[in-house]
Amino acid sequence: MTSIRPTLLCAASLILVATGAASAQQADPQAIVDALFKAGGNQPNVRGSGAKGVCVTGGFTPSAEAPGLSKAPHFTKPLPVTARFSMGGSNPKVSDKAKPVTRGFSMRIADPAGDMVFVFISAPVFGTKTPEQLLAFATVRAPGPDGKPDADKIKAFSAANPETTRQAAWLNARPIPASYAGVDYWGVHAYTLTDAKGTATVAKLKTVAVAGQLGLGDDEAKAKPDAFYADELKERLAQGPARFDLVAILGEAGDPTNDPTAPWPEESRKSVKLGTLAITALEPAATCDAATFDPVVDLPEGVAGPADDPMFAIRSPAYAISLSRRAN
Ligand code: HEM
Question: Is residue 12 scored above 50 in pLDDT?
């Protein structure tokens, strides 16, 4: 495990050391973002992932235990939150019933001293463990002339890269979420939380839906239109806030910190509640679209991403490229 705070520079050198200059070039953020857009049909003015989504606002109230793990000022007082729920991928017309597709939960907990941003998905694992693998994963899913990806190519890629099938297997084993507020979301990376005395704790972060896991049965799913999450959320928030507990799952020796496709045995790990997110209102899309939720740069002292996970730091330049594309 590591407690080294990552920077963009060290991420770039990690990739070079790990893979050599040629493949670092291949998997540069621009190439990955281009491949993500192609896989979703190259739609204009949308995100490279999470293209379909709903912007919301609310608040974060830290728990009494949180400052014992992290000295971040965000864990000392209630703060406002801007957040976005989304569907994975760059196709803004994807059905809310699509499977196996992750739902996303991005959140900006705003403090005058600097924001704390987390970008989570509705699975404990990501689909790829290196930028090179993500590039290949997205490239193989580009639609052909018939508008569909080549199923044989995907099958061959999956067979050669078995860890890339874990996320889909996990999602396929569960029902379609009935609500953005009725499913848990994971950070997938191993974060290091550092308290005021300098004690570091490696943890994976998760939001636990207070409403529980709300899944659609097959008949219920058939009866739903392709876009129902936004209306469902509007109705839900009219009744009261949608709450999530932000939880730290504490790592133990041997838990991998460098591979977001490798799950930790969560049920046998200790967890600590860091606070509660209360989503209270829908917000115009523009509030979330003007900037990107950057999970790498927007972290306070006391919360650091993994230095040894090559998927982490490269997210920052990739998200910036995607933002510049939709801003044009
Ligand atoms: C090499 C790693 C990754 C790359 C290159 C990448 C790429 C992207 C890009 C280009 C966007 C659009 C950003 C924007 O336009 O604002 C995005 C958004 C998103 N990504 Fe990633 N991603 C990576 C890893 C991950 C991981 C590990 C997760 C899971 C926690 C994740 C979850 C999301 C979500 C939920 C969004 C939607 C954000 C929003 O609502 O604005 N990504 N990703």
Answer: no
CATH number for the domain harbouring residue 56: 2.40.180.10
Q: Is 290 exposed, middle or buried (0-12, 13-18, 19+ CB in 10 A)?
A: exposed
Within a domain: 315: no
Could you tell me which of 81, 64, 68 has the C-alpha nearest to residue 115?
81
| Whether the Cβ atoms of residue 56 and residue 283 lie closer than 8 Å to each other | yes
Any atom of ligand 1 within 6 Å of the Cβ of 33: yes
Q: What's the domain range around 215?
A: 49-130+166-310
Find the 100 Cα to ligand 1 centroid distance in Å.
17
Contact 49 CB / ligand 1 (< 6 Å): yes
38 phi/psi in degrees, rounded to 5: -60, -40
Q: What is the pLDDT of residues 213-251, one digit of tens each?
A: 999 999 999 999 999 999 999 999 999 999 999 999 999
Is any ligand 1 atom within 6 A of the Cβ of residue 120?
A: yes
CA torsion sign for 306, 86, 269, 267 is negative
Atom of ligand 1 nearest to the CA of 323: 15
- Rounded to the nearest angstrom, the distance between the alpha carbon of 134 and the centre of ligand 1 is 12
